[in-house]
Structures are given as C-alpha cells and as structure tokens.
Amino acid sequence: MLKTLLHKNYLIYGGSILFSRGLEYAVLFFAAHYLTKNDYGELEFYKKLIEVVSSVLAFGFPILLLSYTRSRESKLYFYILSILFVIGLSTISIFIGLFYADWLILLPALIFFALFFTGGITQSYQLVQNGSNYASIYKMAVAFLFYTAMFVLIYFYNVKGKAFIYPSYLLLPIAILFSYVTISATKINFGKVRRYWKLFRGLLSSSFTLVISNFSSMMFLYIDILVIKLISLSPNAEIAEFSFGLNVASILLIVANTLVQVDIEKLKNQRGYLNILNKKILTLTLSLALFLLIGYYLLINSGYFDSYKYTFVLFMFILTGKIFATFSNLFGTNLAILKKFKVNLYINLSVLMLNLIVCVVVYRLFGLLGIAISGAVILAIRYFIFRFFSKKYYSSANFKAL
C-alpha cells in the first residue's frame, strides 16, 4: 500500500500541487499578517468571487476534457474549441459592466483563471494530452508567476484588497501567447475543426449541466463567505477569521486532486479502480488532517497571528467539513466519467440550497461557529449521497462504451 502511495507520478504531480499551494499559502499568510483584517477580508472575498465565477466562465470544459476525450486528436480540437467558446462568452459578458461596475475590472482575472490557472482548461488539456509530469511543470510555472506578482503588488505597491485581481493583467497576454505557440506547433485541419464543432456543440447541454453542477459545488464551499458578507455587521473582519482557517483546511484537497487527476485514465478504463483509489484517498486524507490540526494550533500560537488566536475550535469544524469534501471528490468525478451529469447536478444543487438556508439560520443564532458546524454536517451528507449513487452506477457501467 505504501509503495503505491509513493509512486513517482503521485510524488511529482503532488509535489507540483504542494509547490503551488505552498506559494499560495505563503502569500496569503503574509497578507493576513501584513494587511489589516478588513483589507485581508476584502482580498479573500475577491479571491472566492474570482474562483467561483471563473468556474462558470470555463463552462465545465476542464471536466469535459478530463472525463470525455479519449484520442489525442479529440483532446486537441476540444481544447481549441473550448478556448474560442470562453473568449466568445467573455466578449458577450462585457455588457454586465453596464450593471456591475467592478465586472470590467474582474474580467481579465476571470478569463485568466478560466483558461490558464489551476483547475482551468489549459491545465486539464496539458494533463490529458501530455501527462501528469508536463502538467506539473505548467502548474508550478503559472503559480510561481502569479503569486510572485501578487506579493510584489502587496509589499512594494501597497495594493490591498484587490491584490488577487491585478496579477492576471500581467500574465494573461503571456498565457495567450503560450497557448498560441502550443496550438501552432500542431497541424490544424480546419475540416476537422468543423467536424468536432458539431460534436462539441452537441455536448454543450451536458457541459452546461457541468457548469451548474460545478458552480453549485464551489458555491457550496463558499456559501459561508457569501452569507457573512451579506449579513454580518463587520463582514471583512469575519471573512478574514473564517478564511484563515478555511485556507489551511483546504490543503486536504491536495490529496484527492493529486490522486484523481494522476490516475484519471485508470479510473476511466479499469473496472474496480474506484475502490483502490478510494482507499488511498482515505488513508492520506486522515493522516494529513491530523497533521493540519497540530500545525494550525502551533501557527495561531506562534505570536505572528494573534488576531486569529481564538479560532482553533472554529478550525476543527471547518477541517471536519473539508475531510468529507475531500472524500466526495473521487465520487463526483466518477459520476462525470460515467456521464451521469444530471445526477451530479441534482446532488450539488439540492445540497447547495439546503446549505444556504441552514447557513442563514445558524449564523443568526450562533455566528461563525454555527456556520462551521452546519457546513461539516451537510458536507458529510453530501459525501454519503455521492458515494451511494457513484457506486450504484459504477457497478453496472460498461467500460468499453465509456
């Protein structure tokens, strides 16, 4: 078991995630220490907003590239069509700026995150087309450039709450040039572009289902922040407290992301691999959770983060919720592979609505702690629902037809 967990591909791809998330946490912890609570809370709000809205702009294509495409040719043309679709959608969305002034400021960041950042379309393409090792290099390069720019803006240029927005302004032209060079290196057949467009167009309804499902999934994780922003009398300060623990607990997601993405082809093609991968995720997640619990206690008592010294109990419940969110990742991806997009959607959407209602009630009664406890319970319910339906359809799946 230990030998399989320490497989070279896991270590390389996992190392790239650790490197990327390490940079992210280094800059965010620096921001939490350097900025006021209000400024840090504003930064975290824009961070969550960009992550959620960019997932809508990506239109489910990262998951479609991972789960649907099989041949190298289909991966290439789906990648090209995905980029063109997102650019078109972004152009249409400019009209939102007439009603929401910040939209035009956010749009370059949204495009960059949808197309090029971690979890975006290009990363998924690099993973399925060139393998996990190449995708690891890409992930580390993008993370290094983005978070270095973010640090420079905060420390040297006194950019505060909007520091998560402006690095994309610098990196988007470079990323577009990179994609152009990558695509130009292949021989594009425009007849095949038209042929794949017909197939691509036919999948847009499934992709839209993925958009709503992915949006619901992400909003489920961030609905707490939205409720705090709308109801709290001191939203930025409370967002800062909640996000500080949430960022540390989110390290757990590295486990599922690494194992699922590295072994995505095995999951698509090998019957029985779902159970093998699940055991690996359970083992590593629980081990890492214990490490994070100890690490967080030492962190808030280190003297550098006195503003967050009394958030340990809050963190315990946030961490519990993240454990179940990590467990759910595999089963949600498996439903996408099995093309059960609507099942995925119904689960995420129904649980999201439940969480929204419960969050509002418990926040008014118990504050941040109430949100953390209710979130952990609902994430546990979501996990068991995902697990039930994933195993139900997996047992009867025809893998040759997938």
Count of domains: 2
Averaged pLDDT? 88
- As residue ranges, the low-confidence spans are none
Number of strands: 0
What best-fitting shape do the alpha-carbon axes yield?
globular
Measured distance between first and last alpha carbons: 28 Å
Number of helices: 18
How large is the share of residues in beta strands?
Answer: under 5%
Which value, in Å, is the CA radius of gyration?
Answer: 21 Å
Global structural class? mainly alpha
Helix share, percent: over 70%
> How do the SSEs run, as a string of H and E?
HHHHHHHHHHHHHHHHHH
Largest sheet, strands/sense/barrel: none
Task: Describe this structure as you would to a colleague.
The chain contains 18 helices and no strands. The protein is an all-alpha fold and 402 residues long. It has two domains: 8-202, no CATH class; 205-402, no CATH class. It is globular, with a radius of gyration of 21 Å. The two termini are 28 Å apart. The model has no long low-confidence stretch (mean pLDDT 88).
What keyword list fits this structure?
402 residues, globular, mainly alpha, 2 domains, 0% strand
How do you describe this structure in short?
With 402 residues, the protein is an all-alpha fold. It is built from 18 helices and no strands.
